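Example 3.2
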Amino acid sequence: MKQVCQEYGISEVTYYNWKGKFGGMEELNIRYLCDLKILRGCLQTSVWNIKSPKIMLENIS
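Structure, written as tokens:
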């Protein structure tokens, strides 16, 4: 296991943390979680883009 972790540039502690968190999941579920994280980031950016002009106008006033 040590060799594999070194090959991918992660520590063994990180590997075991990930294994504990995602170890029982199927690949499809993990991909779904990744897609949700990407979507969440896009939504946060969209919300910020909507709020940003309002915040800038409030600071000018």
